[in-house]
């Protein structure tokens, strides 16, 4: 758990204009910066970035957030990765209570990662330069229908013939980073002594693999003519793990948002060929089965994921593994489909032979996950026999057990029950599904906390916009909030405590990031503040002091009106009456003193 104090300090150090400006072209417009929103299609800019609030807001689609939120939404990073990325850029080290690595070793790991990243970047630049002077490689790409524009967009290159071409790039060709990054291979003798070092990639079209930050972390190399292996990937390194990365995701992010879905294919060439043919929203797994991490990354980018596989046995096996990786991530607001092309086609050949419209129609008619699951478990069994139906249920059990309770799981259970002549409740009971949906009685919905209105809403808004205001509220002010009612008072006290915890340097960005992690209760207030000009702190501070005095005055007046019917003795009434009037006089004096100092 990253401490809130670190998040506050981080957001105070980074500049959201710099963070967003890496991905969006921004122009100064008054106090803010403007640009075209990266989260929806628009022709005139409605996306604003406020350097004073350290917040972005789109007036078109309503997207808003901090520097952390922007990286999460735009790059598909998780919260921790976004924090680490920002921290690295400003020289901060993210504290981790579970991190048992000694500081010296952590520093060594960071230095190693920087060395490997630098080596990969320099190699990528070299391969790109070599492609421009390699007629055979250029001719190959032209035969595949690729233009220079597509090659440039994906940073494609060429590794020429020769065993040690990278020696011209790296003066220290024996550097450890070269072998650790997978760029070179050390040949050793039987005693384990290094005999020679040589380049891993030779005479191959080079596909740089980027992470979500755009850094080159690995390569895929495609042989030009005949030879084995046809595709050669970088080995697993501290930068690159095949089961965690997707080729083309960095380049496809905006296209995925524009299209509303991502198309997952089987190889590098599928991705670049589809981009050439009008489908830039394609990505590929890196010569390995689809993993749960892959699915998580994809669902951060879009609500619709479509897997495209060849129709042969290998394609079907790959689709089954993708299905198994998807099931733990399935929710009712996400759509996952499977597209199977004819055996004689891959996506490239299909589009070239039948056209982009035909391929788009295939995508539209792709098989939903629920249908594919039921087909997978039932295709090879005789449903007319009890044994066949039992085997279908046996095969389906681990798949359904990996799903969280949801409406979609219930629909699949009902489909399976129909196939196997059972009831949904019988299936859920037999499969021991967590939190059965078909047989569970839903608890009556809880009455939500009343929405803030009037003076309470104004106080909430001002504290969210200017968290240091909370430091002005003492215990008596917090007690006065009971005038709004118990639930409203609890809401105000909780917000004030969160704002006070940020300290004097706490800002709107830090508090809104904290509130967002707690849930959606403050989303509307945050969006309103983000869309409005920044209010003057001193003016709001005076208003808040007056508002708290007014709340206290109203509470005292109400108590005074009820005092004589409170059941107290006459002496007790007299004592409390004098206390109330004294408090009222004190509040009036404070108000008059404030007026004279303005």
UniProtKB/TrEMBL annotation:
Transmembrane segments: none annotated. It holds the Pfam family DNAG_N. Keywords: DNA replication, DNA-binding, DNA-directed RNA polymerase, Magnesium, Metal-binding, Nucleotidyltransferase, Primosome, Transcription, Transferase, Zinc, Zinc-finger. Signal peptide: none annotated. It catalyses: ssDNA + n NTP = ssDNA/pppN(pN)n-1 hybrid + (n-1) diphosphate. Residues 260-342 form the Toprim domain. SUPFAM superfamilies: DNA primase core, Zinc beta-ribbon. Contains an N-terminal zinc-binding domain, a central core domain that contains the primase activity, and a C-terminal DnaB-binding domain. This is DNA primase. It comes from Massilia cavernae. The gene is dnaG.
């Amino acid at each position: 758990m990253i401490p809130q104090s670190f998040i506050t300090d981080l957001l105070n150090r980074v500049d959201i204009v710099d963070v967003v400006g890496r991905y969006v072209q921004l122009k100064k417009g008054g106090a803010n910066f403007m640009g075209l929103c990266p989260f929806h299609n628009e022709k005139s800019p409605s996306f604003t970035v406020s350097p004073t609030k350290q917040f972005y807001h789109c007036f078109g689609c309503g997207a808003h957030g901090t520097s952390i939120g922007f990286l999460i939404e735009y790059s598909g990073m998780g919260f921790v990765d976004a924090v680490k990325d920002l921290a690295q850029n400003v020289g901060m080290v993210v504290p981790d209570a579970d991190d048992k690595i000694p500081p010296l070793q952590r520093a060594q790991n960071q230095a190693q990662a920087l060395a490997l990243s630098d080596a990969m970047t320099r190699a990528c630049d070299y391969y790109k330069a070599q492609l421009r002077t390699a007629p055979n490689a250029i001719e190959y790409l032209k035969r595949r229908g690729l233009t220079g524009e597509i090659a440039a967009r994906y940073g494609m290159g060429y590794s020429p013939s020769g065993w040690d071409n990278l020696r011209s790039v790296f003066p220290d060709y024996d550097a450890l980073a070269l072998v650790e990054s997978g760029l070179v291979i050390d040949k050793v003798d039987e005693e384990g002594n290094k005999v020679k070092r040589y380049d891993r990639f030779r005479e191959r079209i080079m596909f740089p693999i980027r992470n979500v930050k755009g850094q080159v972390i690995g390569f895929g190399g495609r042989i030009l003519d005949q030879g084995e292996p046809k595709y050669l990937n970088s080995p697993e390194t501290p930068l690159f793990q095949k089961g965690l990365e997707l080729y083309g995701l960095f380049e496809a992010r905006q296209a995925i948002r524009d299209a509303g879905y991502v198309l997952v294919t089987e190889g590098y060439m599928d991705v670049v060929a589809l981009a050439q043919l009008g489908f830039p929203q394609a990505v590929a797994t890196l010569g390995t089965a689809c993993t749960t991490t892959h699915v998580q990354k994809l669902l951060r980018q879009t609500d619709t994921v479509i897997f495209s596989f060849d129709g042969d046995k290998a394609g079907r096996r790959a689709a089954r593994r993708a299905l198994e990786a998807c099931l733990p991530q399935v929710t009712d607001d996400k759509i996952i489909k499977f597209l199977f092309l004819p055996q004689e086609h891959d996506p490239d050949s299909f589009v070239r032979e039948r056209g982009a419209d035909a391929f788009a129609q295939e995508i539209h008619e792709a098989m939903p996950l629920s249908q594919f699951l039921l087909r997978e478990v039932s295709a090879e069994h005789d449903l007319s026999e009890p044994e066949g139906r039992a085997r279908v249920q046996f095969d389906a059990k681990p798949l359904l057990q990996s799903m969280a309770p949801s409406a979609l799981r219930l629909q699949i259970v009902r489909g399976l029950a129909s196939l196997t002549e059972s009831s949904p409740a019988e299936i859920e009971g037999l499969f021991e599904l967590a939190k059965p949906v078909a047989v569970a009685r839903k608890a009556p919905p809880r009455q939500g906390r009343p929405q803030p209105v009037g003076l309470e809403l104004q106080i909430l808004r001002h504290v969210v916009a200017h968290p240091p205001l909370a430091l002005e509220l003492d215990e008596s002010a917090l007690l006065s909030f009971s005038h709004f009612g118990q639930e409203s008072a609890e809401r105000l006290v909780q917000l004030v405590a969160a704002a006070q915890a940020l300290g004097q340097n706490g800002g709107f960005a830090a508090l809104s990031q904290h509130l967002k992690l707690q849930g959606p209760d403050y989303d509307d207030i945050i969006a309103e503040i983000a869309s409005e000009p920044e209010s003057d702190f001193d003016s709001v501070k005076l208003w808040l002091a007056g508002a708290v005095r007014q709340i206290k005055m109203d509470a005292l007046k109400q108590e005074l009106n009820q005092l004589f019917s409170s059941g107290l003795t006459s002496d007790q009434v007299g004592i409390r009456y004098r206390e109330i009037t004294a408090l009222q006089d004190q509040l009036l004096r404070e108000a008059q003193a404030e007026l004279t100092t303005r």
